[in-house]
Design brief:
The structure is a homotrimer of 235-residue chains. Chain A is of the alpha+beta class and 235 residues long. The first copy, chain A, is elongated and about 60 Å long. In chain A, strands 6-7-11-10-9-8-12 form a seven-stranded mixed barrel. In chain A, strands 1-3-2-4 form a four-stranded mixed sheet, covered by helices on one side. Chain A contains four helices and twelve strands; from the N terminus they run ααββββαβββββββαβ. Helices cover 16% and strands 24% of the residues of chain A. Chains in contact: A-B, A-C, B-C.
Chain lengths: 235, 235, 235
């Protein structure tokens, strides 16, 4: 991908957002996009190639927000930008004249995304990539449920440190709130890792604005078998 | 390596080709070079430091193709460029005046490859790196065998998704061809991953032009114990 | 971090030093800093975010050597620069006007280190980051002990190949010196990996100037259970 990008736009500045998305994991891609996009320079183009449907009839989409552009497969990976970085226009990347010839069935990142990204960063009018698109595949951001005095969230991502990120936010946590995971008490929310003892599970408001379950200098996900979708209760 | 390169050529644009070559795995390096080189800009210099012989008497080589340059240890890692990116001239990187002083015995990437790459990208005449070289170590690209109606290929690389890449090409596959691995039927070649069911083994023409064995949203290599050198039959 | 850096200084050249520091491993960070810093261009700024104390009262520090700058948490990770790259001035990164607003408790790399690094690389006078700092947390470089005719060193780092790096240097090795690890003889120091047989343990002077224990085309750390702090004897 980098070869194709730089062959067509030698001035492109290519940044690896991360090397940590598990293969084909659309949900983790959605989380990293949501968490990262607002921090990148206006004018950035995000190329997201977490693409289990590569080579099938799934569409490749272009979109723009107020100040940034996006290329992504139509699999829901951009859904969680809603409310953070609203997409104002979406197009179907359909004009194969912009692609490498005879694209492979397994690596559209190199054969379609990269040459289209090169063209867009060189100033191609987005309307040239293809027609406006509707009916995007949606992956709804998990809803926090209320059960009496309990708020039930869900783990939405696990990072490379083994931190389990939930969909619970500061507004879901009343003063003195206590956190439970799989029937085990994690205790009150701490202000920083150093407030917990080495190896102890803790809950903390993480850098994406969500409650995270962690182990100080350890991996919560590994020790507690935490996986995306698992419920987390706050009372 | 990046420090040495940028200290000597601050304008060098350094690209990490991949972080996935298993330590000392010359065959995987050969595969990635073959698969990647044609996509990179003319003028690129490829620095390949998969180098189990570091510090011994193995030579370090410079080579050029029609539009690109290469630095690599003389261990066969550039052999598979044959037929894709022919090497037109090869030299022995022998002039130690270009190297860091007192090179270590374990990290020629930093002490020899990087300073020579910096000099070449700043315009050093390649003849200055050392004399022309002959008698390169060769690692022949595996031959597809024919046994009656069966074509027998070999796995040549396993990527980070667990896809097992073979040396079989489209021309080895007759219409309706069926694929077998270790006595187990993988079935007919599919056109894209989505044609297989979740978790099922499949055969597909991959992005390097070779037949690959995969599991949709899984790892073929992990589930089937596939390793480089293993035979794959097409009938 | 890269988004914040480039949003504030689009001309910054961002280099990933490595992706191999185990989470929260201050000692490994200290080793890579010591081993790498001297090879980077004068004018480089090193941003070290191995930071188990993030969000607590631990200080963030700025320092300069003769030709380079550093940002790091006050946890000892810069201690091993002593004797290699002496720090001439140290300041407490205290002026929150330079930071992102409302920094998180878990990702000061993005919220504090990155914007301060962007400002410094754009020419901010270092005195503006905060007041001079004293009483840094120190992590002393392990001392080589002498027991009769034996020199006892320690493993200080394990790299991604499984090489175990010790604190022993050439000056600790007399001609014909023999190396022992956990009561097992590793033999004499070899001049290069190729002098050992495939799979055999060996001792070699590594690229950071320290004696390393390795297995040719294998992992010494995995096979011998070597970990930082383990003693290594030379007789």
């Amino acid at each position: 991908m980098k070869g194709v990008l730089l062959a067509r736009n030698p001035k492109a500045q290519v940044i690896d957002l991360c090397h940590d998305v598990p293969p084909q994991d659309v949900r983790t891609a959605a989380f990293y996009l949501r968490a990262s996009v607002p921090y990148f320079p206006p004018g950035s183009l995000f190329v997201t190639v977490v693409d289990p449907g590569v080579g099938s009839t799934r569409r490749i989409l272009w979109a723009k927000s107020k100040t940034r552009q996006f290329l992504f497969p139509d699999n829901g990976c951009a859904s969680w930008l809603e409310g953070v970085e609203p997409l104002l226009e979406v197009r179907h990347v359909a004009d194969s004249k912009l692609w490498l010839k005879d694209p492979s069935a397994t690596f559209h990142g190199r054969d379609i995304f990269a040459p289209v990204a090169a063209a867009l960063t060189k100033g191609l009018a987005p309307a040239k990539v293809g027609p406006k698109a509707k009916g995007l595949v949606k992956m709804p951001f998990p809803v926090v449920e209320t059960h009496g005095l309990i708020r039930r969230g869900r783990i939405i991502a696990v990072d490379r440190f083994g931190n389990a990120v939930t969909n619970l936010r500061a507004q879901d946590l009343r003063p003195g709130a206590r956190v439970d995971f799989k029937g085990r008490s994690i205790g009150a929310v701490v202000a920083n890792y150093a407030q917990a003892s080495e190896g102890a599970a803790l809950a903390i408001l993480g850098s994406a604005g969500f409650l995270e379950l962690s182990i100080r200098n350890g991996s919560f996900a590994a020790d507690h078998g935490a996986r995306p979708g698992d419920p987390v209760d706050v009372s």
